[in-house]
Amino acid sequence: MYFFGGNETDLILQLFSLIQMAAMFQDKYIFSQLIAFLNRTQFNNYVRKYNGNRYVKYFTYRNQMLAMMFGQLGNRESLRDLKVAFEAHRAKQYYLGLGREPIAKTTLAGKATLL
Asked: Which residues of the chain have pLDDT under 50?
């Protein structure tokens, strides 16, 4: 019996190789893929132009923007809800592009009032 121009054995081998490739495929998180479209140089130029990171220790304006994007895309309703989401994804935080330091609710609230 023929399927798609080949025999059953060829089809089974093709399906097996596709399953293997799908199981071994590893890529960035979707959020990381989305922020790859942002022009980091242009954003840094704006921050530098307006002296945005003047008194910043570790939570930069880029981290703030990414945190707010994460909350918006994740449909978070409050800073507390956003903080809970960050705690749940603490191990992935660096790979999402949000840095290594834990994000406190007071840090988000302080930055949010400045924007």
From this structure: 1-3, 25, 113, 115
SS3 44: helix
The half-sphere exposure of 76 on its side-chain side, counting CA atoms within 13 A, is 17
3-state secondary structure of 4: coil
Residues in the chain: 115
AA identity, residue 20: Q
- DSSP labels for 65-96? HHHHHHHHHTT--SHHHHHHHHHHTGGGTTTT
| For helices 61-73 and 105-114, angle between their N-to-C axes, nearest 10 degrees | 100
